[in-house]
Amino acid sequence: MEKQYCVSPAVLVILLLATVVPSCSSSTGSRHFHFNVQWKNISRLCSRKEILTVNGEYPGPTIAVNEGENVEIRVTNGVSINTTIHWHGIKQLRTGWADGPAYVTQCPIRPGQSYTYKFTVNGQRGTLWWHAHIAWQRATIYGAIIIYPRMPYPFSTPIEAEIPIIFGEWWNLPVEGIETEMNKYGNGPNSSDAYTINGLPGSLYPCSIRDTFVQTVERGKTYMLRIINAALNDELFFAIANHTLTVVEIDASYTKPFTTEAIMITPGQTSTVLFTANQVKHDSTGLFVMAARPYLTTVFPFDNTTTIGFFKYKGTLAENMALPEPYKVRLPYHLPRMEDHAFAISFSNQLRSLGTPKYPCSVPKRIDKRVVITISLNLQDCPVNQTCKGYNGKRFAASMNNQSFIRPLTSILDWHYRQYSSTQYSYDFPQKPPHVFDYTGVDPMTHNLNPNFGTKLFAVEYGTMLEIVLQDTSFLNLENHPIHIHGHNFFIVGTGFGNYDAEKDTGSYNLVDPPERNTVAVPMGGWAAVRINADNPGVWFMHCHLEEHTSWGLAAGFIVKNGAKPYQKLLPPPNDLPAC
Length: 580
Prior knowledge:
mainly beta; 7-stranded mixed β-sheet; 580 residues
């Protein structure tokens, strides 16, 4: 029997995040957790407000499990509005009922009710995360998932401790009604008032010196930073003053290690990096700032602020000194500027799957089906006798292949499993753009297609080697879009700029060691091609992880049909599955 490998709890550092650390146990063991969704009154940026939390914690508790374990998480809804939880990046093999997106794989958990999410963590190890998946609740309902591997890490550097770094966004006003307002008037959301590190905005914001993330480290020791972008609407750059980062894993998949002065991370993505505290001689105080700020690819209003925290070296002046006043803080000189497209591209191009005998890169070398999907922001003509607050008196919308996704009032997975007939759903999502044009070259404002609205999906047979090409368009503006696909990991075999050309661009695909992810950054003014082994039966959501775009309809769904053998079929729904 293969030896179970676990990290000793004495080695683990989890700050501000309550954690259950797994002991070394059989890979067939089980983990049980209880989440209670509840309100909590907290203070940030000079004011107090009530926010939605899990177990009264912000961010929520860390789920720590071993690779191969069965996991059960009972979620009780203790508030007066519906909720759901998504376990972002967990493949949910045959357990789509536990995936979590409201009205896609389940009806929401109603006030006062509970639902137990049950799944097995197979073939994944590293950093993932969980978050609410209804309306904009994930603004405050989110937390880390850590999967400890069966085998030792594929790098020899001793790890002193592990530190989650979770980026978020903070609004001074309530966020619960933002999507309702957007749906009613077709407008955009208010920008956030701050970015956060582990729920804390940092000392550059008003009234926030005490709300600053600070971590003490020892000189000469190496730390594993488990970095998660839980922000709703912004890709972020991150750097630590006078230090480099070594990337070793993304989205719970090992990478070929490489060293970088900064990272770019989109909403939905995770990056695990090694950080060695070896620079105290460059600063007599032993205090080093970490900082995150947005990667800007939009013309829409955005939060252009910067969140910071600090690493303090043990045994230096920093250990007992007060944090510097904001005007004395110097950001890392190597933190990319907000419009540093060259860095974002270069960083993404360095990502490669580890591709060793123990951790092979199982990219499909051939495909059975290619689906080409345009990603568009749209302006919809204002309906008669309605008030519209989008640009030029119209409504903002978003679409895939000019089809804007409408979430139904019942569960799509339940409809599919029970083979119901319904006028709400259909299998005729267009699998190529309905109109061929210069996708990235049209005038952003004068060329615009009114999208169609509905709940359309496409279906593939079990085991289909599927390629999805995601093509940005210049409607309203060219933009970097983080597209998340539920139920599967995928391999990013190619990216480029301009319009995708299958005859030309497939020749430059990387079919040796492409990065394996669950969320891909489709480059601004370009395209990304991903390959999937569709071996997980169920209904799977595919959407932009910029929450405003999902609210406007930048989403779709696809169905993987049951295979012929019992282990290739979706399991029956659990008895406590919420009803609509």
